[in-house]
Design brief:
This protein is an alpha/beta fold and 263 residues long. The chain has a domain of 71 residues. Helices cover 38% and strands 22% of the residues. The protein contains 9 helices and 9 strands. Helix 3 crosses helix 4, helix 3 packs parallel to helix 5 and helix 7 packs across helix 9. The radius of gyration is 18 Å and the shape is globular.
Length: 263
């Protein structure tokens, strides 16, 4: 269970969360996880360890089989809804809609007035550096640009919590490094809380203020690592002794977690 001092600063906490699917697959077993306001938290673990399942439970897209998700009482908008943005593994854009209209979708569903929505969409598109492509269609964009649109769509509602499910896994290394840098700039500018799912040790160390290492399925927390490396982080950090040491620690913890397993 999260300790009392950690729980006090948390915006949400998963308490004894387990998830078993109808086919009998146990994805999570007794997961205890606190998410602290303003942090960049990465969930690191092997494929199939329940990272994405935990993210979907936090987002309310899936119900736990056991356990609970406790939210801080103040972490809701005026209408009582949680302000959550979700970036999936694939951009999941509407191919028939422009960049502008793809980003507009969440505000249209919320029935935000057109003038206000247009300003918010323009601001979100500018944040991800695509202001020159607002009228373009997904087929006209690179993979990295399509992911930027997905991020803009998640940010347009000004979420307090941004959930990201391996968003850069399918991209080439150069594009991935660039988007890592841009994501950190956005996180610092917006002061939102990020929970980022990855199975890359190097990505988790570069991005995170805290890394939670999960066991193999059924997933639970094996250990956590914190990083005091200052932000902003840049190319120099990737070649530093501090980065190499953190990567080594994370890699060793991941190897041990896979050996222990979730049982």
């Amino acid at each position: 269970m999260p300790s009392a001092d950690k729980a006090a600063s948390s915006i949400l906490a998963l308490r004894g969360v387990s998830k078993t699917f109808p086919n009998g697959t146990a994805a999570l077993a007794g997961l205890d996880l606190a998410v602290r306001a303003g942090e960049f938290l990465s969930l690191l673990g092997p494929s199939g360890c329940g990272k994405s399942t935990a993210l979907r439970i936090i987002a309310g897209l899936s119900e736990p089989s056991a356990g609970s998700v406790a939210w801080r009482a103040t972490n809701a908008s005026a209408d009582g809804q949680r302000r959550i943005g979700f970036v999936f593994q694939e951009p999941t854009l509407m191919p028939w809609a422009s960049v502008f209209n793809n980003v507009l979708l969440p505000l249209r569903l919320k029935r935000v007035p057109a003038d206000k929505a247009s300003r918010s969409v323009a601001a979100a598109i500018e944040r991800v550096g695509l202001q020159s492509f607002a009228k373009a269609y997904p087929r006209e964009l690179s993979g990295g640009m399509r992911m930027r649109v997905s991020i803009a769509r998640a940010l347009v509602t000004e979420p307090d919590l941004l959930l990201m499910d391996e968003p850069f896994a399918a991209l080439d290394e150069i594009t991935r490094f660039k988007l890592n840098n841009d994501l950190l700039e956005l996180w610092q500018a917006l002061r939102t809380t990020v929970v980022f799912v990855t199975h890359s040790v190097f990505e988790s160390v570069y991005l995170s203020s805290r890394i939670v290492v999960m066991t193999a399925r059924p997933g639970r927390v094996y250990t956590e690592l914190t990083s005091d490396a200052p932000y902003p982080r840049a190319a120099q950090f990737r070649t530093s002794a501090e980065y190499a040491a953190l990567c080594r620690r994370a890699s060793e913890a991941l190897g041990q977690a896979m050996t222990v397993g979730g049982g």
